[in-house]
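Pilot study result, target chain (255 residues):
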Amino acid sequence: MSASIIPLSFASQLKSKFLEGLAPSELKIILAAATERRFLANTVVVKQGESADHFFLLTKGRARLFYVTKEGTKNLLVWLTPGKVFGGDALISKPSSYLVSTELQKESSALVWDRATIQGLAAMFPRLMQNAFLLASEYLGWHMVEREALTCHTARQRLAHLLVSLAQVIGEKVPGGIELDATNEELASASNINRFSVSRLLTEWRRKHAIEKRRGKILLRSLERLIGPGVVNAPASLRRRLHRIDLDDSSDAWK
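Predicted structure:
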């Protein structure tokens, strides 16, 4: 479906930083130049090493960036929610390849521009490129925090750090806590620990009523019980993330 029939209110509802600071007349041109595409869950839309021919703005669903090492190991990077962009290599002036892959975890939709079109729009509206740089900086910041967790923390702290991070990015506030849609395999890959250790730690936290496992999802119920009494001694990056989460932590009710 052509984006030309999408009302301008769509952009304000999406609240994408990529479209911030643009006048309605500019948004109309940008949206009209895009095509809306729908994708099935578990579709790899952008493939590492392939020609960067398209730029994407996620409008529905969820995606994740990942890369595959020469040894064939799949490494998860950033989780993306509606309003985020991927395929940014298409904005580079010279022909380039995608540095990382993007997989859609749920049935999703995205606005898509081909390389020539998005570069033309960026030249016409410099704010687009500024916004793209801002988002790239956010992705880099996320990756730096995660790398810090991988290199400096214990396995328990890394997994707790990951759950707290995911609560901010892909968590859904529901009665009783924050619900995350992530498999043990995904958690193991992202925290650089084996699936057995992930399963063991999740079981321990479930017994302490810090989390619940239900319908293939994780319900984060108590930050205090997840981190434990030593929260004041937790890594600084983890403490910063804890302060940003609005969780009705009623752990006393579970004593």
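One observation from the pilot: DSSP finds nine helices and twelve strands in the chain. A full batch analysis is planned for the follow-on phase.
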